[in-house]
Amino acid sequence: MIPLPCAPGVGYKPQHYSDILANPVPVEWLEIHAENYMGAGGRPLAQLRHLSERFAISVHGVGLSIGGEAPLDTDHLSRLRHLCDWIAPASFSEHLAWSSHDSAFLNDLLPLPYTAATLTRICDHIDQVQTTLNRQMLLENPSSYLAFAASTYDEPDFLTEVARRTGCGLLLDVNNVFVSATNLGYDPRDYIDAFALAQVGEIHLGGHDEDEDDHGAPLLIDSHGAAIVDPVWALLDYTLARSGPRPTLIEWDTDVPDWPTLAAEATRAAFALAYARDVPAMCLPGAAE
Amino acid sequence: MTSQSIFRAALLDASVAVPAGLTDGAGRPAPKRFAVYRNNVAVSLTEALEAGFPAIARLLGADNFSIISGTYLRAHPPTSPLMMLYGADFPTFLAGVEPLAHLGYLPDVARLEYALRGAYHAADATPIDPATLPNQTHLPLAPATQLVRSDWPIFSIRARALSDDAPQPPVRPETVLITRPGFDPQAQIISPATADFITALLANTALDSAIDIALRTDADFDLTAALTMLLAQNAIISLTTEVPT
Fold first, then answer.
1. Out of A79, A242, B54, B152, which could bridge B105 as a Cys pair, Cβ 3.0 to 4.6 Å?
2. Residue B89: burial class (beta carbons within 10 Å; 0-12, 13-18, 19+)
3. Which of A171-175, B24-28, B76-80 has the lowest mean pLDDT?
4. Per-residue pLDDT at A282
5. Predicted complex ipTM
C-alpha cells in the first residue's frame, strides 16, 4: 500500500478530468466518494482506472453508516471491498456518523451521542470494516449543529478511545472543527489540543455557509460549496504546527469551481504544508510557475 | 422506538416533534438546529432527483418539481447508499399524482431518463467485428442497451424540455432505443418493427426468429438497416450459436 503523500489533494470531480491530466500542480493525490464508483462500468470507472495509474487515490465512503444502530450493510461492505481490491487505494476513510436506518438511506451525515453504548457499537463496526477490507481505516470527525444531553464524552476523547480500541487512524476535518466549535461555543484550538494528532492520517479542508440559530447565535453549515475562510486556514496552521505535515485535502462538492480556482486553494495548502516542514515556500515544486 | 428511529421519523416529517435531548452548546433547546438536518436531507435528495430527471424538472418548473420531489422523497427515501439508483419508482409515483394526470407522458419521459442513467453506469462491453457476422445466430447486446416504449412522443418531449432549439413534439407514440457506443448514452426513435426485433434479441431469441417477429409487425422491416444501426452503436457484443445465459 502506498500511503498518501504529505501534499495537497483534492476531492475529484469529473468535470476536472482533462485539466487534472494536463496540469495537476500542486495536487499530488485525489479523493473519490466510494459510492459514485459502484456502477458496473462506463465513464466513472474508466476515468478512475486511468487516474489511479498516475495519482495516489483515497477512497472516502459516505454511505456505510458506521454509527448506525443496526448492523452494517454487508452488501455495501462487499462493494467497498470490491472497490478497494480493484483500485488498491492509498487510504480508505469513513465518518463518525450514521445515515441509514429502517431501510432508508438519508443521504446525510447524522449525529451521534457520545456514550459508552455508542463507543462499543462504533468500535464493533470499525473492527468489522477493517477485517473485511483487510486494511486500516480512517474515521472522520463530523460537523455538529447540536449537542446530545446524553453525551458523556467530549468528541476528541471519544475519537481517541475509538482509535485506541480499534487501531483505526483518524481523519481530521479542520473545517468541521471550526464549524462545530462555532456552533457549540468552544475554542477550536482546545479541540485540536485534545485531538490524538499522532493518529491523523489525513486532513480535510472545505468551505461552509453562515446562518443563525433560534437565539440569534451564529450557526455555520458545512456545505463544501465555497472557498475556505481565513480562520480555517489559520486553524490549519495551528494544527500542522503540532501534527507536522499531513496529506491535506480540499473538498469542494457543490457549486464546483473551475480547475484554476480549486488548484489555487490546493496551492495555499501546499504553502501551509511547506511552512509546517520549515522549508522555504520558494522551494515548493511548481512555485516558479 | 430506538433513538435513530425517532430521529429518522422527525427528519422526514416536519410535523413530527423534534427529538428530545438535543441542545445548543449551552444546553438550551434549539429546534432550528435540528432543522439543519431536515433541510440537508430534503435538499440533497431533491438535488439528486433534479440531476437524475432534468427533463421532468424542466417540464414541471422549479416550484412544482420542488413540491413533487418533496412529497416523493418523504414517501420513498433511498433504500441504497448508491444514489445512482435513486428514483427507480419515481415514474410510477408520477403516474399516481392526480394534479399531473393531464400530463400523461410524464411517467414515460421519467422512465426514459432513468434508463439513460442506467445505461451510463452499465457494464462495458466490446462490440463484434461486423465482418464476422453470420446469418443465423444469437446476438447478445451490450448491457447498456434498453428500450423505452411509450404511447407519447417521449423522445421529442424530452428534447424540447432540455433545449429550446428542439422542435415542437409531434402527436405520435415514440419508442426509444438507448445505446452506449462509448461512455455517453445515446437515445433514438426506432420503428415498431425494429423495436420488436431488438426486444427479441434482448430476450435471447435467435436472429432468424427475431427477424420473423419483426416481419410480422411490419412486412417492410429493414434488417440491414437495423443491424447496421446496432453495429454502428457498438451494441452487438458477441455472436454465438449457444443460447446466451
1. B152
2. middle
3. B24-28
4. 43
5. 0.90
Calculate what percentage of chain B has a pLDDT beyond 70: 95
CATH 3.20.20.150 fits A8-283, yes or no: yes
Neighbour count for residue A174 (Cβ, 10 Å): 26
Give yes or no for a contact between B160 and B153, defined as CB atoms under 8 angstroms apart.
no
**Could you state, in order of their start, the residue ranges of all structural domains in chain A?**
8-283
DSSP calls for A48-95:
HHHHHTTSEEEEE-SSS-TT-SSPP-HHHHHHHHHHHHHH--SEEEEE
| A46 contacts chain B (CB < 8 A) | yes
Locate cell 413534439: which residue?
A: B169
Instruction: Count CB neighbours of B231 within 10 A.
Output: 16
- Assess B28–A contact: CB distance below 8 Å, yes or no: yes
| Contact call for B77 and A106, based on CB within 8 A | yes
My answer on whether omega of the bond before A247 falls inside 30° of 0, hence cis, is: no
Judge whether A217 is closer than 8 Å to chain B, CB to CB: yes
pTM: 0.90
Q: Which of residues 163-182 of B touch A (CB under 8 A)?
A: 180
**C-alpha separations of A255 from A225, A230, A251, B53, B231 in Å:** 5, 20, 12, 19, 39
Residue of B nearest to A150 (CA): B21
Crossing angle (nearest 10°) for helices B62-75 and B31-52: 110
CB contact under 8 A, B122 and A39: yes
- Residue B240's pLDDT band, with cuts at 50, 70 and 90, is confident
Q: Which amino acid belongs to residue A48?
A: L
